[in-house]
Amino acid sequence: MKKVKVAMIGVGAISGIYLENITKLFQELELIGVCDLVRERAEQAQEKYQIQKLYETMNDAFADPEVDMILNLTRPYEHYEVTKAALMAGKHVYSEKPLGASFEEGKKLVALAEEKKLMLGGAPDTFLGSGIQTCRRLIDDGYIGEPIGAAAFMICHGHETWHPDPEFYYKYGGGPMLDMGPYYVTALVNLLGGVSGVTGVTKTSFPTRTITSQPKNGTIVDVDVPTYITGTLSFDNGAIGTIFTTFDVYYKQQARFEIYGTKGTLIVPDPNTFGGPIQLLRPEDGDYKEMPLLFDYKENSRGLGLADMAKALQTGRDYRANYHLTEHVLEILTSFEKSSKKGCYLPLETHYERTLPMMNNPIHGILD
């Protein structure tokens, strides 16, 4: 079995689960090199996971003829330049979310990938996990009738109390909608289809944030992005969705994520996870029933989208976390603030048609 060879750019907080899954779970991937601006991080990853190469710069990775695909795990405001350079060097790219820090950046990357005839995929890939895929099956099979609406809420008070490097969450490319919104919007469009337009109202509740986590305890950060965002989504199928994301509110439990249909209501699991639980309410049952998970990858399977893209590279089939999805999601995420500033409904430029659902493969770690 010929493996797709991957170079990882960025070895920060999110890299740990990617390192685990690429080296131990997904059998058709081979991580052959790592690179980070903080060399020590790359050295530690290389030693722990027995990685063949440590690149001095990302351009060294892009120039490596052995590398088939670049995994971009840099910070959101760096995604554009890193992905652009990799594409210019002729490499396929899979990027952490979002595709770019603005819709304009995303459009340029998509145009470049199309010009170069290269694959461009991206996170989040949680929608490929057992939870969201089971919800899609239930909706597609008519368990809630015709979908008529959705509500998705992500409520917390920010990351400065626990994250070791939280400044970027409040800078260009950050904020709750671009940070956590991708999980919810990606799940929504995979459950209900594309979005034709949005409205939004946004604000910044606190002009500064004080970091209380280590090692930057006491540092004051200016907040440059909206941190309280409400939006309405008009889906192509006629359904209407509501989304709310905030870094301003104290909230203890997981907020709701629900899909409403003419015959029932589906409680969707946290879209930042790969598993369940899933609950279905139909009037004849009188109460919610927990539904069994019907697909593989219930555990934290980050890298699943990368593995799916690698399989597509090997076989020529389509890949599910493709740029049609990530560009459409990015336009939705960034249009709420634009709508708020203009005070009007915004029709979208992009359109999205759902890719095929996941298929169970008897061998865990090898995709269909």
What does this structure look like?
With 368 residues, the chain is of the alpha/beta class. The protein has two domains: 4-126 and 301-322, NAD(P)-binding Rossmann-like Domain (Rossmann fold, 3-Layer(aba) Sandwich), CATH 3.40.50.720; 129-291, Dihydrodipicolinate Reductase, domain 2. The protein is 30% helix and 23% strand. The strands form three sheets. A nine-stranded mixed β-sheet has the order 16-15-14-13-7-12-11-8-17. Helix 4 packs parallel to helix 5 (103-116), helix 5 (103-116) runs antiparallel to helix 10 and helix 6 runs parallel beside helix 8 (181-192). The chain is globular.
**Quaternary structure annotation:** single chain
Structural class: alpha/beta
| Overall average residue pLDDT | 97
Indicate how many domains the architecture comprises.
2
Biggest sheet strand line-up:
16-15-14-13-7-12-11-8-17
- DSSP summary, beta strand count: 17
Could you say which overall geometry the principal axes of the C-alpha atoms support?
A: globular
Strand residues, percent: 15-25%
In CATH terms, the superfamily of the largest domain is Dihydrodipicolinate Reductase, domain 2
The topology string of helices and strands comes to: EHEHEHEHEHEHEHHEEEEEEEEEHHE
Proportion of helical residues: 25-40%
Number of continuous helical runs: 10
Q: Radius of gyration, Cα only, in angstroms?
A: 20 Å
| Poorly predicted sequence stretches spanning 5 or more consecutive residues | none
Shape-level CATH architecture of the largest domain: 2-Layer Sandwich
Using the coordinates shown, work out and report the CATH topology of the largest domain.
Dihydrodipicolinate Reductase, domain 2
The level 1 CATH classification of the largest domain is: Alpha Beta
Largest sheet: 9 strands, mixed
Question: N-to-C terminal Cα separation, in Å?
Answer: 14 Å
